[in-house]
Amino acid sequence: MDFIRTGYSPGVTFEKVRKIEGKENIESMFSSYTIDESKLKGYAEWLFFPKNEEEIVTVVQEMEKRGVPITISAARTGIVGGCVPFGGAILSLEKLNAILGLGFDEKTKQWYVRSQPGVSLKELNEKVIQKKFPELEEKQKELLDKFSQDEKTYWYPVDPTEKTAHLGGTVATNASGSLSYKYGATRKWVRKVRLVLANGEILDIPRGKYHASPEGTFTIQNTAGETKTFSIPYYRIGTNVKNAAGLFTEPSMDLIDLFIGSEGILGVITEVEVWITEKPENVIAVTTFFPTEMDAASFVNDIRLKDSSLKTEFLEYLCPDSLKLLRKKQISDPPLVNMPPIPKNVAAIIFEISYNEDSLPELYERLETIAIKNNSSMDQTWACYEDREIDRITAFRHLLPETVNAIIAERKQKNPTIHKLGTDMAVPIIPETNLAGILSFYREKLRESNLEHVIFGHIGDNHLHINILPKDEKELAKAKELYKVFAKKAVSLGGTVSAEHGIGKIKKEYFNIMFDEDKRRQIIEVKQALDPTGLFSIGNMVNI
Amino acid sequence: MKIIVCIKQVPAGEVKINPETGTLIREGVQSILNPFCEYALDEAIRIKKEQEERGGEEVEVIVLTMGPPQARSALLRCLELGADRAILLCDRKFAGADTLATSLALSEAIQKFEEDFTLIFTGKQAIDGDTAQVGPELAEHLGIPQITYVTSTNLIPERRRIQVERETENGYEIVECKLPALVSVSSGSNILRIPSFKEIINARRKVIKNVIADDLSKDTSRFGLSGSPTQVAKIFPPKSRTGGQKIESDDPEAAVSRLIEFLQENVFVDKE
Ligand SMILES: Cc1cc2nc3c(=O)[nH]c(=O)nc-3n(C[C@H](O)[C@H](O)[C@H](O)COP(=O)(O)OP(=O)(O)OC[C@H]3O[C@@H](n4cnc5c(N)ncnc54)[C@H](O)[C@@H]3O)c2cc1C
Predict the structure, then answer these.
(1) How close is the Cα of A182 to the center of ligand 1, in Å?
(2) A168 CA: nearest ligand 1 atom
(3) What is the mean pLDDT of chain A?
């Protein structure tokens, strides 16, 4: 069905909504609401803390009337400035932080959770894993009992590293992370979305109900009976690449997918339902070392393309320079790194794979064969399966970006305008040559540029982060040019300029490499159909 | 040469106590190898490697524990970290043992199966019960010398002696004693080792011997609850130490002057 009706919400009186008024008040007491993890700093004249959907409707209607734009704000862990306002109002959804219900889909035999957007992924997962939902005990006792009696452990397998991110924020950015290698990005897990549109009316979109017409249109009817038909974008993005850039589109697409990853430009997400799934009981995380980067890349291809029974949870990369940086840290502060001595002149792949005791030797043999073929061995690995050890490996992986950030912070003292440049590009995993190809390309250009850098990240998705650490303005300028070169290359291979962080306000220059004017116009047309006066999250993704 | 390492499986993280029964809550808490036992094992493995390197007598490291069936996983961890084989004393009749009954069972197992040992290592204490009694009691049962709170060891096989450094209240002591002996280890590397995948697989091919109470003695009433004279009056988790005060600043000079201020205010140093 390509026809959908909006619902009515009465709203409340504007006075009832908790708000901070005035730029100075916000700046003096709530300045953290005008910045996110990108450190882009904005400003606002209003800051709202609605408690429920009715209050959101009121704020939306009132701001629409006054012609004040609204920037939607969740946990502000984004790193592209998506929730950073430049004037107007901030609509913080942090008070909508209740889990609303647990569900079991009889058709698919799957569990799901209904939640307000302000619940953090950390809280959601703790509750799901422990099967503890005190807030639901009264109204869903029977179902909760059924859930606790289910022997399997469940989880919501989306992990964008920063677990304080809100469910709503992650849906709005289609967040992903290391686990998306196996489980896919947020999109795959969203069962239902509920939104407040710019006209103050409600859209309730379960997955599987509303699909674009053969002509690529949707028709929306408001409560006054007026209808509006709009076209979905007709550009195409490769299907075998992880992507967080631009609005999603595909022939006869599900309407829900238009809003997932829309970076707050189409409406306010007020409720979501997400599937949860079985968490593997035993996983082993193996850090494997390779004499060269190309050996590591070939190992990754062998694992993900040659032996379909090897289903790793994730495959992560640390380049020789990354390990060198961490080794330096290890020498100066061993407990911080908390690892055995890091070997020299090697690249590392960290992968996690589920196992059961009986099949462990067989799994080992298969991995060992692949490792030997690629000049490595399971003999020189760090293998962790206890929770506390897996936590050690996770902390070790995260230590790299933290170390990079610390170095930049130190350099900033001398050169306040410099910052790190972190890429977020991915290329399709097929053809197989893409990985070695893009890695060699990065290598060659980085060598020519002589800029300090590290390469690491989600190699399983051909999604490597290059972090460039400029020492001064000149190097920063050079790094920015290089960034564009990399973006063009990734796009030329059918890849994306942003696989997980999104575009927000600070990656538009690269977005424009991937999305030419015509493609941007297609996005703008959707935006104008749903939000004609340009109320929501202005400045994200496209310039209106 | 046989080195025996007595180890214990303990709950990871903070110990919680059921206020009604006064016993440890073990459900939902992961179990780990007691860290002091891991230090003890490390010391044994180090000696083994050292002997190998200098072509000395071959060393066999045997890990021993008494515990429920799941304690197997702690033994497996030791095998992954380099122990050669393991013994698990596991029987309902061992349950409810205090330190006396525990050390008795351990000593009888050692006498029965590994009598020709050269050295026994234990951790200084288990982090759940914190008694630090099992090691010393075990040495008493076996009638061998013991050195507790050891921080480093030097085995002198030619003279059948061991020299150690041990912690005392106000410093360190160097002590030497005759072998066989029991050494309880109180410190080690604070960076725990991580086995390789190969070591994990190899460990699964090593032997873990199961021993029941009847294997050790006809009079099993000396084991477990019935062999435990200890009366526990009260059990409580120790108050965890608070983090203290941390002075954080990007500016070292500002941080130092705040530190001086603090020291002066609290009269740790005189105001100039
Ligand atoms: C150390 C670190 C590592 C990270 N690693 C990853 C990673 O691996 N993968 C990844 O994907 N991200 C990563 N991120 C980025 C970030 O965590 C994600 O983008 C996250 O999804 C943002 O969630 P949030 O709640 O903080 O949203 P915010 O930053 O507050 O907002 C993000 C965007 O969503 C919009 N929005 C928020 N809520 C709503 C709503 N209810 N309705 C409509 N629009 C809304 C905002 O307007 C904004 O455009 C990382 C961040 C940090 C700091």
Answers:
(1) 21
(2) 41
(3) 96
CA dist B170 and B20 (Å) reads 40
Asked if A340 and B196 come within 8 Å (Cβ–Cβ), the reply is no
Same-domain check for residues B253 and B221: no
Residues of chain A short of pLDDT 50, as ranges, are none
- Please give, one letter per residue, the 3-state secondary structure of A185-222: CHHHHEEEEEEECCCCCEEEEECCCCECCCCCEEEEEC
Please judge whether A381 and B198 are an interchain contact, meaning their C-beta atoms are less than 8 angstroms apart. yes
Mutate to test the pocket of ligand 1, among A173, A179, A181 (most ligand atoms within 8 A of CB): A173
Q: At B150, is the secondary structure helix, strand, or coil?
A: strand
Q: Determine the distance in angstroms separating the CA of B248 from the nearest CA of chain A, rounded to an integer.
A: 15
- Residue pLDDT, tens place only, A291-327: 999 999 999 999 998 888 899 999 999 999 999 999 9
Mean pLDDT, 10 residues at a time, over chain B (272 residues)? 95 75 70 93 95 93 96 96 97 90 94 96 87 90 96 93 94 95 90 95 97 93 88 77 78 88 82 67
Q: Where are the alpha helices (DSSP H) in A307-386?
A: 320-332, 334-337, 360-373
| B143 and B176 both lie in a single domain | yes
What is the ipTM for the molecules in this complex? 0.87
Residue of B nearest to A387 (CA): B30
What are the chain B neighbours of A387 within 8 Å (beta carbons)?
Answer: 12, 30
Across the interface, of A364, A389, A413, the residue whose CB is closest to B194 is A389
pTM of the entire predicted model: 0.89
Identify whether A505 is part of a domain: no
> For residue A249, how many other CB atoms are within 10 A of its CB?
21
DSSP letters of B155-186? EEGGGTEEEEEEEETTEEEEEEEESSEEEEE-
Q: Clarify whether residues A210 and A230 are in a common domain.
A: yes
Q: Give the distance (Å) from ligand 1 centre to CA of residue A4.
A: 28
Count of domains observed in chain B: 2
Transcribe A485-499 into DSSP letters: HHHHHHHHTT-BSBS
HSE-CB for A162 with a 13 A CA cutoff: 19
Residue A542 lies in a domain: no
Interface probe for B, chosen from A358, A376, A385, A414 (most Cβ of B below 10 Å), is A385
Angle between helices A320-332 and A387-414 in degrees, nearest 10: 90
Tell me the three state secondary structure of residue A270.
strand
User: Which residues, 6+ apart, have CB-to-CB distance to A28 below 8 Å?
Assistant: none
Owning domain of residue A353: 283-492
Q: What is the domain range of residue B55? A: 2-227
Q: Residue A35's beta-bridge partner residues? A: A41
Tokens of A340: 């055995």
Q: Give how far Cα B4 sits from Cα of B106, B126, B130, B181, B232, Å.
A: 11, 17, 21, 11, 30
**Probe ligand 1: pick from A36, A72, A77, A93, max atoms within 8 Å of CB?**
A77
Closest ligand 1 atom to A244 CA: 11
Taking CA–CA distances from B191, the nearest residue in chain A reads A338
